[in-house]
Amino acid sequence: MSISIKDLIKMLNRDLELEYSAAIQYINHAAVMKGAAYGDIIKEIKIHATEEIQHAMLLSDQIDFLGGTPSILVGNILTSGENIEMLRQDLDGEEDAIRRYKIRVEQAEELKEFALSQHLRTILAMEQEHAMDLQQALGD
Ligand SMILES: [Fe+2]
Ligand SMILES: [Fe+2]
To answer: Which residue, 110, 121, 104, 112, is CA-closest to 9?
Structure first.
């Protein structure tokens, strides 16, 4: 595995776009999810939304620091009329994020960008917590 800083910036920008879309998706899902049984997870996913925005800020700062231009594009957003389907969409997004950030940590370390790697590990740990919250709500 060998990567240039330019390639890494490109991938971090894709991660950034997916943080924006995750935040919007959570705001939408928290608003449209129905039923008293979903009260706890609705509270959780509102917190997730604010944490995805924190991730977007962190990534934007890191991309700028590395000499890149932070993207202002937003990734694909999914929604549904069904609570369970929305939670599945959110869990899929978190599992994708976990996969991407594991790779990104390795790439940052390969380039000896250890501060970036530390930030990415923090984000990765939070995505894992998000996935656990969703798994618990889904009874997985
Ligand atoms: Fe995130
Ligand atoms: Fe997340």
So the answer is: 104
The C-alpha atoms of residue 4 and residue 11 are separated, in whole angstroms, by 11
What secondary structure letter does DSSP report for 38? G
Please, where are the H alpha helices in 72-113? 83-110
Ligand 1 centroid–CA 26 distance in Å is 11
Whether the predicted model's global pTM rises above the 0.85 cut:
yes
Report which bound ligand comes closest to the CA of 55: 1
* CA dist., res. 23 & res. 139, Å (int): 23
How remote is the CA of residue 82 from the centroid of ligand 2, in Å? 20
Q: What's the gap in Å between 68 CA and the centre of ligand 2?
A: 23
pLDDT, one tens digit per residue, over 27-76 is 999 999 999 999 999 999 999 999 999 999 999 999 999 999 999 999 99
